[in-house]
What does this fold into?
Amino acid sequence: MPDFIHNGPSSAPLTIVLAHGAGAPMDTPFMNFFAEGLAARGHRVARFEFPYMATRRENGKRRPPDRQPVLLETWRAVIADLGASRLVIGGKSMGGRMASLIADEKKVKGLICLGYPFYGAGRKDKPRTSHLVALKTPTLICQGTRDPLGDCEAVSALALSPAIHVHWAEDGDHDLKPRKASGLTQDQNLTAALDAAATFLAVLG
It folds into this structure.
């Protein structure tokens, strides 16, 4: 079972479980912002690392992500440990995508994806979204309008389940960071995404 970082009150009605992206651990500034921000609004947040990232933390050696079956089994173990009935699952990029693949299967309360990889870099012609067409789990995706893995124009043309709501971070990249010329800051985009997540969670109860 992975080790967890917990934030927020253990008595909260919902626990939000966030997984990291492919290249960075669970305690990056991006992950800290959302975990601590949601905790400050009264939610319980749990973070964990997939086996390859946990190994990297131990020995400092970079390695590629585990294969998808291992990633999914790790998610299943986390959900079994925490109890699906009060969980909202998701995370950054790959972590959120893996969560989306098992959200319906595990009947969790909701799904939050932060920078969803709708397709690989330069592969708009091969979207990885077939499972999102019929997704039943209430879902929030916070996405930068110029994300190289899912920009606004490309994503708007995709068939997505009506259960999915996309919050767009103006001029944001894969980390929701805008260009200086936009007149916006990353902090503004992150805060707006956090507000959208809080509103989404309030509806779930």
Summary: Helices lie at 29-40, 51-59, 68-82, 94-106, 152-156, 186-204. The mean pLDDT is 96.
